[in-house]
Write a structure and sequence with these properties.
Layout (H helix, E strand, L loop, with lengths): L1 E3 L4 E3 L2 E8 L3 H10 L12 E4 L3 H6 L3 E2 L2 H11 L10 E7 L10 E6 L10 E7 L4 E7 L5 E2 L2 E3 L6 H13 L9 E10 L11 E11 L12 E8 H8 L5 H12 L6
Parallel strand pairs: 1-5, 8-13
Antiparallel strand pairs: 1-3, 2-3, 3-4, 6-7, 7-12, 8-11, 9-10, 9-14, 12-13
């Protein structure tokens, strides 16, 4: 069922309600699409709704309740999205990464905080500040993606990011200059066997690094190609990927434009 609390939450000079489902995120998204709520108002486990739309959404089928009851229902549903203060949940997708090869939930979080220390892999959005991003194509995976890979034993996550970029593009980065963009959380339920992913939380750190545009070439044997790609082309090549929402959010922040829809 869809639930909505009173518009009593103040932000950005307006009052807001929270809209949730106590059954599934899919039900919540379906209701939001039917009532034309913008995707940018999704906060990982709820939609923020301006006060002037409260009555309309109740008429469309949302059940009104108190803020305390809504919070309890969200907690009991198991759909509460875990995040740190200042982070922005962008997506929660059941079996979102084909590479996992088993049952899991993918959660995508935008964050300027350092990624979780337990991150087992890193990805770097290498850009020139002028509308180009580095993408690589692997022999083992279809399509193009930003450079990145698994952390080696004893390696910090920043060192992992720098090494993977060097191996896949030939670029040498200063780990101190990496800017946190966010992270992906791959959640494997207890009892599920999805090697090499552990039961519980598995984090993939995402950084950004600005460098002057210069030739790139793969060093590692498992990378077929690397190149600078215009952002519009990157969107065409990668826009259907589940992690794209994080890149899109980063591009919006980079441009200083209005929030993506």
């Amino acid at each position: 069922m869809i639930w909505i609390d009173p518009p009593v939450w103040a932000a950005h000079g307006r009052l807001w309600s929270h809209l949730i489902s106590d059954a599934s995120v899919e039900e919540l998204h379906a209701f939001a699409a039917r009532t034309h709520l913008p995707s940018r108002s999704f906060e990982g486990d709820h939609y923020d709704v301006p006060a002037e739309r409260h009555a309309e959404l109740v008429a469309a089928g949302a059940e009104p309740t108190s803020g305390g009851d809504l919070a309890r229902r969200l907690r009991d549903s198991g759909l509460r999205f875990r995040k740190r203060r200042g982070e922005r949940p962008l997506a929660r997708i059941v079996d979102g990464l084909a590479a996992v090869g088993g049952r899991h939930t993918l959660e995508v979080i935008a964050s300027t905080l350092e990624p979780p220390a337990s991150s087992g892999a890193a990805v770097v959005l290498v850009h020139d500040g002028e509308g180009h991003v580095v993408l690589v194509r692997s022999h083992s995976r279809p399509g193009w993606a930003p450079p990145g890979g698994k952390r080696e034993p004893g390696e910090t996550i920043r060192a992992c990011a720098v090494r993977e970029v060097a191996e896949e593009t030939g670029l040498q980065l200063d780990p101190v200059l990496l800017s946190p963009v966010g992270y992906e959380r791959v959640v494997v339920r207890a009892g599920e066997q999805v090697p090499p992913w552990d039961a519980g939380d598995n984090h993939i750190a995402v950084y950004a690094a600005r460098v002057s545009r210069r030739p790139v070439r793969p060093v590692a044997d498992d990378v077929a190609e690397a190149g600078w790609v215009p952002v519009d082309t990157v969107r065409q090549q990668c826009g259907s990927q589940p992690w794209w929402v994080l890149v899109d959010h980063w591009l919006w922040r980079l441009s200083g434009a209005g929030a993506p829809s």
